[in-house]
Amino acid sequence: MSWVLDNLDLIGSLALEHLRQCLLPLVLGFVISIPLGWVAYRFRLTRGVILTIVGLLYTIPSLALFAILPTVFGVGFLSETNLVIALTVYAVAILARSVADALGSVDPEVRQAAVAIGYGPWRRFWGVEFPLAGPVVLAGLRVAAVSTVALATVGILIGVDNLGYLFTNGLQRRIVPEVLAGTLAVMLIALLVDVLLVLAGRALMPWTRRRRAARAPLERMALRAGGAV
Fold first, then answer.
1. How far is it, in rounded angstroms, from Cα 103 to Cα 126?
2. For the packed helices 62-73 and 80-104, what is the interaxial angle rounded to 10 degrees?
3. Running DSSP on this structure, what letter comes out for residue 129?
4. Closest of 25, 23, 9, 1 to residue 190, by C-alpha
5. What's the pLDDT score for residue 178?
6. What number of H helices and E strands is found in the chain?
7. Residue pair 102/137 in contact by the 8 Å Cβ criterion
8. How far is 152 from 166, CA to CA, in rounded Å?
9. Cα 94 to Cα 141: distance, rounded to the nearest angstrom
10. Closest CA to 101 of 148, 141, 59, 60
11. How many C-beta neighbours within 10 Å does residue 142 have?
12. pLDDT for the residue numbered 226
């Protein structure tokens, strides 16, 4: 405990760096996954190919990916750019399937109604389909966020300073509180990002709250009926 109190500045600075390194891959992964997920949903012939490829990307070990990316993108092996690209690849692997499944969950009758009132493909997607798919997309984004926060720690292996430093340094010097501090800090950042995503989802998708509020009385009635039986 004394080690933690004596090194709060170090833990805080590494936590901020860690959070910064995670946000960009999440944003990039989300943006890239929207067209990929749409293509996978829209064209059945390519769905299996796209989702299989992005699924396989997640199985690539991080160290192997760090070695491959400099050759493909011409970035330095020991660089933050290498870490950001790797985390983006893993985020896309999760989010592309989430977007495809989310679009597939939209009621076809809603799409037909949008077409009937004159919505074109572009307007229908952004005004009807994507908002209704939002809750499922948000669920995938939350999983990707937690995964990204955890995976970012391996950046220390290619010289990128973040909370992973507390793991490697703590293990080398056998300072258990340092390792525990790093673990707790990663968990807190993951929790913080998850809470922020939930709050953002509630602000951007208020109709989901109204839907739950409208369903609550029916659920209570069903519970009462079940208890009566």
1. 11
2. 100
3. I
4. 23
5. 92
6. 11, 0
7. yes
8. 13
9. 8
10. 141
11. 18
12. 46
Average pLDDT over residues 132-148: 94
**Structure tokens, 27:** 């944003």
First and final C-alpha spacing in the chain: 56
Length of the chain: 229
Radius of gyration, alpha carbons of the chain:
22
**For 162, phi and psi rounded to 5 degrees?**
-160, -160
Cβ neighbours of residue 165 closer than 8 Å, sequence gap 6 or more = 14, 156, 182
Q: What are the C-alpha distances in Å from 224 to residues 197, 212, 215, 217, 227?
A: 34, 18, 15, 11, 5
Contact 201, 135 (CB under 8 A): yes
Give the other-Cβ count within 10 Å of 169's Cβ.
15
Q: What mean pLDDT do residues 138-163 have?
A: 93
Q: Which two tokens stand for residue 43?
A: 């064209």
Residue 103 amino acid letter? L
Helical H runs in 118-160?
121-124, 130-151
**Which two three-digit tokens encode residue 71?**
């050759």
> CB-based burial of residue 130 (10 Å sphere; 0-12 exposed, 13-18 middle, 19+ buried)?
middle
